[in-house]
Structures are given as structure tokens and as C-alpha cells.
């Protein structure tokens, strides 16, 4: 039987930033505590449920904790976090805190013809200057507030850059330093829990 007590700090501010292949789970915690991170993914087509019973995680000195798990496009992700404390040789648990359910966005194939990229749902997403010499501004007009995950892929679909930030409802501006990335054509994907957008850009020097 698990003993629950407020002595063991309850995880706060649970968030999930997703791409079509990975989910970055985050919460506000305490580095002195340990955590049980569990998740289930449900295949939208076959209703096959997969369980992750104790995902690996890390916490920094400020108590910002993250865990990254592999997912597949179209799946439904449910997850939760529970803190575990050891006080005077007694194991105490916090309440289990549920994260918001997330639908994993679809991965769109890159068109092979003429090295063109199929852009999807670019409404509300701009990048400039385009072409860029390496410093790129991303303008995102969000319909929802929350985490924003930005990733850059080459024409073969390999992720070469990623970063996470916060999005507000309305206009958001993100500055990306891409000076160490080679010249060429790339695409940028922006994901939050509710929107998935992609746009093409060129690095040219």
C-alpha cells in the first residue's frame, strides 16, 4: 500500500511538446525527489495500447524536469507523473498528476521530385529572411497558448536542429541561429499540443 502525503511535493505545471516521432514531457518538480513517469499510447487505427511504465527523466537544479519518449504519428498519448520521497526510511508518494491528452501529429512525406518539400498548414507561420544567411526569424500566430517545439529537417527527413519555447495565443517571434548549418533547402516544423505546421526555407551564403 502506498502512503501519500503533501510532504512529498506534487509535480506541477505538466506540459507536453510533441513532434510526429517524439514527445517531450516536462513538469516543475524538486531535484531532491525521484519520479515515476508513466505513459500510454493508443493507435488511432487499431486501438493498440502500448505502455511505458517508468520513463527515464532528468531534473536540473531549478527543479525543471523533462522526459522524452518515442511516439508514432496518429497515436493518442496519455501520461502522468508521481513524486517519490524517502523520509526517515519511509517511502512516501505524492498524488498521481495527469498530463493533458495529446494527439501525435502526422508526419508528411517529403516530395522527391525536384527536391521540393510538401508544406502543410503554413497559415499563421512565416520565416524570414528567406533565403537566410543563417539567422532566421520565425513568426507564429498561435491559436493556443502552451509549449512550442521547433525542429529543422533536411531534405532526407533527418532532424538537424531543435529547440523548445513558450507560445502565447497570438503573435510569437523566435530567433534561430543556424550559422553552423550548411547551405541548402530545409523545412521547419512547429508543434504545440494542438497545432502542427511546416514551412520550407533556404540557407544561402
Report the sheet with the most strands, covering strand number, pairing sense and barrel closure: 7 strands, mixed
Unreliable segments of 5+ consecutive residues: 109-120
Shape: elongated
What oligomeric state best describes the polypeptide chains here? Answer: single chain
CATH topology label of the largest domain: Immunoglobulin-like
**Count of discrete domains:** 2
Termini distance?
64 Å
Beta-strand residue fraction: over 45%
Radius of gyration: 19 Å
Total helical elements: 0
CATH class assignment of the largest domain = Mainly Beta
What does this entry look like structurally?
The chain is mainly β and 205 residues long. The chain folds into 2 domains: 3-103, Immunoglobulin-like (Sandwich), CATH 2.60.40; 113-203, Sandwich (Immunoglobulin-like), CATH 2.60.40. It contains no helices and 18 strands. The strands form 4 sheets. Strands 1, 4, 5, 8, 9, 10 and 11 form a 7-stranded mixed sheet that branches. A 4-stranded antiparallel sheet has the order 2-3-7-6, with no helix packed on it. A 4-stranded antiparallel sheet has the order 15-14-17-18, with no helix packed on it. The relative contact order is 0.19.
